[in-house]
Amino acid sequence: MTEVGRALDAFEADGEIGAIVITGSERAFAAGADIKEMQNRTFQERYGGNFLAHWNRISTVKKPVIGAVNGFALGGGCEWAMMCDVIYAGEKAQFGQPEILLGTIPGEILLITLILN
Ligand SMILES: CC(C)(COP(=O)(O)OP(=O)(O)OC[C@H]1O[C@@H](n2cnc3c(N)ncnc32)[C@H](O)[C@@H]1OP(=O)(O)O)[C@@H](O)C(=O)NCCC(=O)NCCSC(=O)CCO
Description:
Layout: H1 2-13, E1 20-23, E2 28-30, H2 35-38, H3 43-48, H4 57-60, E3 65-69, E4 72-74, H5 76-83, E5 86-89, E6 94-96, H6 110-116
Bound molecules: the ligand CC(C)(COP(=O)(O)OP(=O)(O)OC[C@H]1O[C@@H](n2cnc3c(N)ncnc32)[C@H](O)[C@@H]1OP(=O)(O)O)[C@@H](O)C(=O)NCCC(=O)NCCSC(=O)CCO.
């Protein structure tokens, strides 16, 4: 997400860019946070270390952001899609929050977004 954040910073500052399209591959838009990286960290390490510090950057970009989604948009990937101003979903797009099966809850913005909508 740090790299995506840097790219969004650059696009926002570039006067030649009017809108931003975020996409993935045909198979997956994004499968969410790296479970392997998360699994051995305690709550204190993740929270104190600002593990999700840049996750909501998509929602703060001051240019229209379009999420072009195909394949899996899971966990944080689903949240990324929901942060876009417009979601353009292909027929094979699948949205979900499977992290509840790991005993965790959507980490960043999903619950707030659902309540607001
Ligand atoms: C994305 C799925 C549906 C793909 O399933 P499949 O095609 O069967 O492929 P897999 O063999 O399951 O996966 C291939 C390979 O990718 C690794 N992987 C997939 N997702 C992640 C991930 N989120 N983090 C880390 N690694 C991931 C998987 O372990 C395999 O690696 P190998 O080394 O080859 O074994 C399926 O993989 C799936 O459902 N993934 C979990 C999605 C998920 O739970 N996302 C939420 C993450 S928590 C989060 O986002 C916090 C914010 O709330």
